[in-house]
Fold each of these.
Amino acid sequence: MIELPILNYTYDEEQLGFPEPPKMPDPSIGVGERIATGAIALGILGVLLCGLAGFGRGGWWAIGVSFGLLFAGGSSLSWFRFRDTTPGIRHDHTMFRSVQRRGWIAWGLAILITSFYIVFYWYAELQNAGMPPLLEGMIRLVDPVSFALQGVAADQYFFYGFIYTLAILVFGVRMIMKYRHNRYHIIRTISVSFFQLGIAFMLPGILRRLDQPEFYFTYFWPLQPKYLWPGEAGKLSGLLEGGGVIGMFMIGFGIFAILVATPLLTYFFGKRWYCSWVCGCGGLAETLGDPWRQLSDKSTRAWRVERIMIYSVLLAVVLITILLWTNYYLSQGILGSFSRIAYKTYGFVILNMFAGVIGVGFYPIMGSRVWCRFGCPMAAILGILQRYFSRFRITTNGNQCMSCGNCSTYCEMGIDVRAYAQSGENIVRASCVGCGVCAAVCPRGVLKLENGSSLHGRYS
Amino acid sequence: MKHAVIIGNGVAGITAARRLRSIEPEWRITVISGESRYHYSRPALMYLFMGHMRYADTKPFEDHVWEEDRIELVRDWVIEIDADASTLHLHRSGKLGYDKLLIATGSKSNKFGWPGQDLKRVQGLYDLMDLHQLHENVRGTRQAVIVGGGLIGIEFGEMLHSCNIPVTFLVREKSYWDNVLPAEESAMVSRIIREAGFDLRLETELKEIVDDGSGAACAVVTGQGERIDTQLVGLTAGVAPNTDLVRESNIETGRGILVDWSFRTNVPNIFAAGDCAEIVTDGDGRNLIQQVWYTGKMQGKVAAEAMAGRDVRYDPGIWYNSAKFLDLEYQTYGFVSNLPQPGQVNLWWEHPSGRKGLRLIHSETGEFLAMNIMGMRARHKVCEGWIRDKRSIEFVLDHLEDANFDTEFFERHDPEILETVRSQM
């Protein structure tokens, strides 16, 4: 006979789910964590006072009590928070926290970041329309760094690069502490931090100081299409005319990077060599974005949308590039005004709105890789290469998957990893950026990122 | 058109339903469960409770596949099987006829007749009913006691720790899970349990659970007579086949529902598979009950083929299993006995950190037989191949690195392992 309490069980798990269970009080927070939190609070206050109210304009002490405190407090908070836990996967309560499960804190944060991007991208236009110079004070805060690095005062782009790098470094420390039992994550996080700080932030400043053209060696066409766009649309002409030998080198580097290095590195290592080891967008997603990786949509419907969108963007940038070059050879011919509309629209819709406003602003709502998954044309090319011409794969260990779903849940690219793992299949997917979190969170050690020895099994 | 009904939407039942659909496109297939609307992953219960995942994330298939595959899902409990009339009696929705029936009702938590075992605030941890109960029971719990040392016990403890509830383990054995693990592995697990802040009482039995006067547990008394105040008692002394539904029918049962190697019961057209099935073996009289995820999957697949009338025989293959004790991963390939067996040689390497270990077992004639691996990951295909192909231990040692499945850049220990185990040979 079946027992009565079981017969009477009618809980609707679909509608109600399983909410946070009641807890005993948390153990008291350590001194280190308190000091770190205090430093962050003071840092925020510093940014507001010095940035908005204009105290201590341009001095080292002002940046010290604002962004300096934020950096020190932010990175030491993760240090103190994770130091006393045993190394391992620490995802307790992730799905219960408002900020990580699209609660009101998440929405507030999303609105804040999105507003920042709108002010940042359309700063001049908005000021012309009457908006006060909101960012001015904060830009002046980073002047000392700008003078030290590039010899001139900061502009809004330098300021953006500064806080972007700061975010990668602070949350990079968090990432390393959180996954400190796993060397893959430690090395990968050091890599993205290095490429952001050294190559994407400091090097362009130094080049500027040396009166050389500004150039980001971590971005190439088609992610940064301007490097191969001719005429007024791109930077190619500028590099050719004003860049001398270094300019020629930069052009050569850009062409080599996309035509030779990209296919070759992707063949051996998969798209991860770029997306989760080098790229700045990926770098931010892997550090600042980590707390929201579980928000990606895993449905097959989302996968369909993904394929339509990402290849449309790739197609658009390829067509615009062809259009611009045709037009260039025809000396502006008949397509002049149309090509201008095309590349301006691409810049506005894809690069500003999609990559920036939605890509980062929606981290707390849609997860950390929205741009990388649905929009990035570089990821599209890398994905095709990875799917058909790469040795990279995620190997499934026999029949050991027990379908728990940790892998799919924490896949930032929304790949239903479990669907493959539970069938004993290896995972060969265009979108996988090789972050390695699926393999780390698997409680049965079923997944392993590998550079295989052949293309075996890719064309089934 | 035949109607196949499957009782239970766990991994065995659901695998059977999907397999049956692929071989019998025309059959009507119904899966009945009172536990949940859709199939979910039972091993994910702990992650659901601790907030690693939402309930929706524990479902291995998207909801739309059932309609697409024309697998009818019924949320109800079967209360009686009328085998003579080929009819099921459901608790809420009346009668349902079938042509072929698969019973996949899973397991139940063991209760060994302890006084007070049916009190409120005493529970096992096996299904969504238990999880739902646990949400109620942790409220007001300042101290928990878990009885029995096994895989579910340690998961239960980890779940309670996520709610900041102190946990005392009462374990009858000398060392954690040492009825399954050899001494070194068991010592390692016992150590990490203590390091994680659990109060692990070894060689301690439960004598009784004390009623607080309102029908709820308020303390346990150990075999040594010690009284431990508690507001929640977890019973995790293993699981047994759930045969509640068939006890009063004419389907034969032993510890589980007795089946042959094709999962046929004694009643024509009725099959049983997964945790609830007890396979009657031909030889030594020790019947086979398998209660892990992958065997449920394999059994479900074979049962579906048998239901479709195919001549199939279940082959359990080379035994393997894996688990995670807190942060310590464990894998086993082949049959590793907890005690040294005559005619077998045990080689053991342990990392100085005490969080990694490797046991290799070979016969006296040098044939590789089995292995345990702790805190590291091994490649299934390679280890299984060594055992299946009866490789020599020398061959295994020469190819040890082929078996590594750790994530990239992990510290490798092959030279130390080889040096240590060779010195033991």
Amino acid sequence: MKRLIPGWVKWPQLDVPLLLGLMLLMGFGLVVLYSASGEQMEVVYRQGTRIVVGLAAMLVLSQVPPHILRIWTPWLYILGIALLLVTWFAGEGRGADRWLNLGVFRFQPSEIMKLAVPMMMAWYLHPRRLPPEASSILISVAILVVPAVLIARQPDLGTALLVAVSGCFALFLSGLQWRVILGFAAAAAAAAPALWLVMHEYQRNRVRTFLDPESDPLGSGWNIIQSKIAVGSGGVLGKGWLNGTQSRLEFIPERHTDFILAVLSEELGLLGVLFLFAMYLFIAGRGLYVAGMARSTYARLLAGSLSLTFFVYVLVNAGMVSGLLPVVGVPLPLISYGGTSIVTLLAGFGILMSIYGHRNFIR
Amino acid sequence: MRLARFTHSTAGQPLKEEAQEGRQFRKRALVAFLIIFAAIFLIALRYVYLQVISYQEFTTRSINNQVRIVPVAPNRGLIYDRRGRPVAENRPAYRLELVPEKVDDIEQVIISLGQLVELPEDVLEKFEENRKRYREFDSVPLKFNLTEEEVARFAVDRHRFTGVEIVPYLSRYYPFGELLTHVLGYVGRLDVDDLNRVDQGNYRGTTHIGKSGIERYYENELHGISGNEKIETNAQGRVLTALDRENPVHGDDLILALDVQVQQAAWDALGDRPGAVVAIDPNDGSVLALVSKPAFDPNLFVHGISRKDYNAILAAPGRPLFNRTLLGGYEPGSTLKPFVGLAGLELGVVTEEDRVFSSGGYYLPGVSRPYRDWKKGGHGWVDILGALEQSVNTYFYQLAYDIGIDRMHDYLAQFGFGMQTGLDLLGENSGVLPSRGWKRAFYNEPWYPGETVIAGIGQGFNVVTPVQLANALATLANGGTRYMPRLLYATKHAGNRQADKSSSPLVSQVPVINENNWNVIREGMRRVVHGASGTARSIRPESGFEIAGKSGTAQVAAQAADEDMDETTAAHLRHHALFIAYAPVTQPSIVVAVVVEHGGGGSREAAPVARAVIDAWLSQELAQ
């Protein structure tokens, strides 16, 4: 049998536990999506197609050694920034210019930045002495702030924050001194009122609604209230798959995209939610473990911040669906329908796989 | 490899401590993992809070979300007269309804609809006003009682109108039209003011409500209890399935004491003259007829009267909207004499034998102006019987003077003068039964003896309503039992086969000091019709039964008593003709009070009406 395959083909070294975790999560996600889409098989197929594309990207990236990635990194970052600037002038989308139409397909340049920013941070910190010195910190901050501001301007606050957070994780993992971290945290708290001033009115409304959803139950509070009703009425065991009334009767907004967790909570109950959280925790934990095994600073920082950012998606989405956090357009990773996010995420896991596969190289 | 690393770090940067960095990283990675673990733990706690602790609350809200309760209006109770003739019916009709949420451009759709269905301005105004009561996905009535042609026209074009529907319903219909308007009243479109006087929850699906008359007084009984249909809807309010239905309890059917045939007889007998007739059964206070003329067609009001029709009613002569039987205040005139006479006998002021000389004019000591008899030269010596038979004013001037106004007031009050009878219709006028105290309170003036004198013949301050007069006579005829007159005879609850008889509440019993005194008054009234010189001899029945009566004339324009009325007097200045009667004399089963406005003499104008009513009643009673 082995002879049939030429000897020069190297079997991709995939991290089997991580891969199994991802496959299980996405399979579970498709089952939930079938219900959340109102039993439209077509939606499931399309999501499946995206997953296949994402897995392909993952496979390809898993074969690229980290030191090659590192060489590409600045170019990717510059490309991302350039595309964001193009989007500024030629973007399209409902109420926000996030999308770039390439004729064949449309995509959000901000998705590139979700990978490019942690890569760039890792690239920059890789040759530096760690923990980083003041000048390094300043430049690192600039690396994450520039794209974050460009994305926030679109406006897409959720993605901007996630991009910024991924950069912050890289800094954190690089061993940033605690006093510096505290200093940044204090500065951020002080800057919050300023943030309020630069926010768009609809973003402010989201925050207001978040603080008191019942003040406008039929208006902007509707989403939060209906989502909470769906979650709460699910109970421990849930109403059963395909039996969620809140979702079936369309009370849940964006039920198969950003609020798909509400559908899951309603139909599969607390047990389903905890199972989901456990899977996410496993994947993120496995990612951090892989990062710990890596031999280069670049690989470690990149793998670590990708894993943590992935989990931040989960935290923000789960917080939003349960009314703990304001409504920001953050999907439930690998489960919410649509967007380029699923491909980006899987590409990120491709990088993790590569780092895992090349853990024995010192580079 | 190592070399490569060193070359890479030649940019003047210090060497990296690989192993130490790795340890540093793993420490940080562990810290990060603990932080995210703590974070997801907190969020999981949030889910526990929502799904375990608040489970009940959110389950309820989730059910409330999906299940919508749609009210089902009960059928309004029917109304019958005492012989079982339907007087208020429900007829199938069609109305046009519109769901605002489903209609993109309401104004445009209404313009298009206007080409198929007549939509006058007032209908549209009512629609706009009504919309506020409903939610966006509720169906709002636009026009009631579509003609068959309108229904057909809409049916052809209905595909053009999403969100507009033709809905069958039961519409109120009054087969006797204006004959019973002042009894039944009418139902009309429910408006905001009506909602304040009913249980709004029970009226969610109701479109019409009793606006006046019996329809209003017995609104609660007639309306019934609203039912519900539980339906599952989605977030847009679209109906998916009906889950459960709680049937409405239809309103009670009412059986009125009123006899349409008697009512019709009174109506016809009044002819074109404005006036009022009230007939009561003295045995139980039930109202046999209640006519106020002119009237109007109540059916016009059911579907919302058009401005044109309403203006026509307002402009019509004789104020058709005015219910004379309970709102009309008239001077009782001589119809008060039997009661004054009874007061005199019972209070011991006079006896049956006492006689008074009528010279044509009665003089109070120290007053030069005479109080006149209606007959020039007077009636000579008369006792109480003769005074009643010929309606001798002088006798009652003297009697009233002897009784005194306050004692007279107190005695007559026992018959219900000066107060509402409590008839089961709203808005009754209480009339006036004067006394010293009343005049002081009302005019802040002292009482003058002359006012007592004219009060003896029912003039001056006295004001009665026809229903008051009839009820007072019923009390006299039945030996002193005063009932609250009732139009309602019996109530048939939905689902019951038998109707429950409702009895007229007893108000009071007039004390009978001497039964003979009452008989004397009754005999005097009998002689008004049957006596040789009775004022109402003309209505005497040839055979079969006897009638007791008393005529009266209510002054309209202030006028010297010695000026006679005649045919030349302008119609609107002529006196109102009054007549009260009961029959049969031996065992009274009907009491009638008649007012013919500007009719002139009571005996000539009003007595024949009373006779017609009595005939209509007794012919039916005898037939049974």
Amino acid sequence: MAMSIEELAHTADVRIRVKAPDLSELFVEAARGMMQVMYGGCEEGTITEELALEAGDHEELLHDFLSELLYLCDVRDVVFCSFLVRVENTRLSAILKGVPFDRKQHQGTEIKGVSYYGLQIVKEEESYATDILFDV
Amino acid sequence: MNGGIKKIGPFEWEVPVGYTENMRVPGRFFLSDELARELEEGAIRQLANVATMPGILKCALAMPDIHWGYGFPIGGVAAFDRSNGVISPGGVGFDINCGVRLVKTPLSPEDLKNKRELIEHLYDSVPTGVGAKRKRFRFSPRDLEMAMAEGASWAVRNGYGVQEDIEHCEQKGQMKEADPSAVSAKARERGVPQGGTLGSGNHFLELQEVREIYDETAAATFGVKVGQVCVMIHCGSRGLGHQVCTDYLKTLESAMKKYQITLPDRQLACAPVSSPEGKAYFGAMAAAANYAWANRQLIMNTTRKVFEDLYGLSAKEMPLLYDVAHNVAKMETHTIEGQRVPVCIHRKGATRAFGPGSEDIPHAYASIGQPVLIPGSMGSPSFLLCGTREAMERSFGSTCHGAGRVESRSQAKKELSGKKVKEDLEKRGILVLAPSYSSIAEEAPSAYKSSQEVVRVVHEVGLSRMVARLEPLGVIKG
């Protein structure tokens, strides 16, 4: 099945639903969804960051991964465009590529945090899916 | 209303124990019939979830701007016993000490002949929007440490304000329990370049005119009169506060296992107030709250400089009326069934509304109660109210914090053109400057509940009393 990012209704904040054929791709879609909200997305970049994370379960791992992206974007002034993610059990390694933040080009909604509310990774027949709520 | 929710007064509703499993106390919220039509079931469920938390006292409360958030509903208030209750970042939110301040000026709208120039100067001087950082100001590591420890006092001591500003902030702009050592290196790193920036979303700096007075005595005490120009500043603790919340969600989630606490929403991660984890979160949260007070003080100082350049006003001619926090946890003492009980109160999208004679109110306001500042949405009125004794009895000295959305940001962007919203507001004499048209569309007046109706409910219930209505003249948005 195809990967997808869908914005769901939420009055106060921004809630997205992501789907992907496997866990690693689900994390990629979630990261792309977050960048879409914050900056309207971007093209391939040359700035590279590597990440290695470990958590208690997949939801916590996804929460930590997205929170780490948020932190990196904020302090490095970078917008990430492509993601190579590998999730094994509750460990993650990722290579992120991005471009320098450009106020004119990257317009979106500032995300304050990644909420745990409703964050539950569901394995369907041929795919993984989860909702993610961002405080904006 | 379903699930056994009962209307128990003209503006009061009860969510009975049993609405969801494991509720320890009932939920209670204040709404008019008109606002009740827009109430989301998700918000009631979140209120019921709060009622399941250990050590909760009396009831889980929500103000009339209740809406669906994460963890606590927005507009949520809950007090926990300090000896056996919990503290939770889910009851404060990511934007710790998001709040509002109101600055008075001696000007009238007729004095603002060059209003566009004023708004443009403000927009150029106060960084707004995603990625906003100040080019000319960065906290040094020592200043950041001191700002986290001292809040507004740090700013005034360093020349960003006058002594009277401190007296006119809730808790004098400083939570003394702050423990900067509990704030992570990541949070500090985010805090360094963002001091004095507004941020994005619903944050704003607005030029307003006092258009109507409801209570002459209170208005005279607060020093406002019809036709007076004021400036309202709405923002919080920026990336530093957001990171503190993120960090401690993780810490407290592990602590829940240790203390064998099970809750229906992971975002309600919590620990006993008296535990090392609970104390660490409270110390870090208080440090972030102080950063937010320093931040609003820096923005106000920049605003005063702009007014000085254009109108020759001094800081003393632009006194701070008051500054309130609306996302915070605090240690307070409240009367419950005739006993004075030390509590850990959480206000998430709710404002403290201490009544006459309460502690921690500026001396000049003691007979009236503390000022309560309720920002409208862009283009709609804001309100000045005062705290009441009734609020002390019924809502742990709390009231609403704003209008509350009725339409999601994506819906607003789909339905409205930011350009059109801006033009419509300009036709009404309200100038808007923002980084993008989409950020204007997202915050369009039609995406919000009527702030007037929310304020009417708290006034009718007695949780605070209406003093004045302020209408927007111009706004800079994040």
Amino acid sequence: MSAAKGELSSFVIGMGRVALLACEVVRSLSSVRLNWAEFIKQMHFIGLKSQFVVLTTGASTGMVFCAQTFYQFHKVKMDTATLSVVGVAMTSELGPVLAGLMVAGRVGAAMTAEIGTMRVTEQIDALRTMATHPVDHLVVPRVLATVISMPLLTVLAWVVGIFAAMILASSLLGIESAFSLKHMYFYTDAEDVVMGVIKALVFGLLISLISCYRGLNCTNGAEGVGRATNEAVVQSCIAILVSNFFLTLFLRSLLYPG
Amino acid sequence: MIEVSKVRKSFGDQVVLRSISFSVEAGESVAIIGRSGTGKSVLIKHLVGLLSPDEGAVRVEGQDLVGMSERQMLSVRQKFGMLFQGAALFDSMNVHENIAFPLRRSGVTDGAEINRRVKSVLGLVELPGVGGKMPSELSGGMQKRVGLARAIVHRPQIILYDEPTTGLDPVVADSIDQLMMRVRDQYSVTSIVITHDMRCARRMGQRIIYLREGQVYLDAPAEEVFNSEDPQVSRFIRGEADLKEVDFS
């Protein structure tokens, strides 16, 4: 019990420090010129190189979700409603959350490991002695690149997931595609799309800030880098899942006021 | 130029520095010596604001670093160049980019000027033609020399050397010593060397500060320190252990 309390309190303290890091990022963005070379490098690493993992996850989830929904709906003769459920779920929930979890695992871990190694090998101290703020040089390009990449990767997950579900539905499950597509367009609102994009932006911000924070505060050599990387991925995933719940409630009340 | 006044620093229960005071004048070359664990590296990090003392003050040209924010400290740090114990080269950049980095940070934007100055310092450290190599492709001695080139390329007023010859073979250590002396004499910079290599201290230090148990035990001109009859100092200089202090159990 006391161990769980300790974990919780360190998580809350950590989140407070991540919030302070976010303030420093805002200060840097408003007063220091962006390091474009690092930003482009990070966009390539985060946005472009994460496509395969997000694409695979999106396609797999879309198909599995379509199949499971079909088997339940088929019992009550609602086969053509299958794709509308897939559409709503992929755009507002599964797309951003799964893309977020994949990016946290792939990109967040790499960010923490790279910055953490720089920290324990005194490269960050070297940066500081060369009149360079680590937040300006390391954190801001990563945060911007993740925040921009996440919505794009989420859209990729939607498109691939829904497309894969459509192919499965029409070719293997025998669902009438004209009706099911019409239902999908009817039930998937623009608000679902907006909600998904907003969630992706927030998740991108959380992943990058948590990962950079863990890297910047890494100690104890190689073991410390390993521990920081592990903590960054676990905390990013928890932050995504917890914030997703509150974002769903908040955005529902905001986007669907009636 | 640099004034350290009653600096105290502890990490948890462990007190590393206990009320340390000394000053370094412009153009002076000072070697700080002492046994491992006496707080030499912690002290040098205070001089450039990488660590903040629990008590006391660190002033650089009259500006107190204590209480300054990280951003306020950036302008003070432009006066410094620092060679780290492990060189601390950026492993995502090649040698040329590593050396060009502080130049770009100090406002030099002309590519031809950057290339000329990088080439010039690589020549000074006797490593012409390695600009395209990554740090991982260099030996420890070569990394130290590149680190030295990076520390001096923007012509800082003060250069800090953290254990510049540790872990190097005697020949490479000698070449690093000679390079540091060349830099000191050629650019007339203020130099502060942290070392427990007595040959390095003798060559670089016009003045020697001997730290013992987190305090300044002796602060005197080099000759006086090397001729000292104080048993603590002379034993350290000769590299002799006091058997009463050694625990074999």
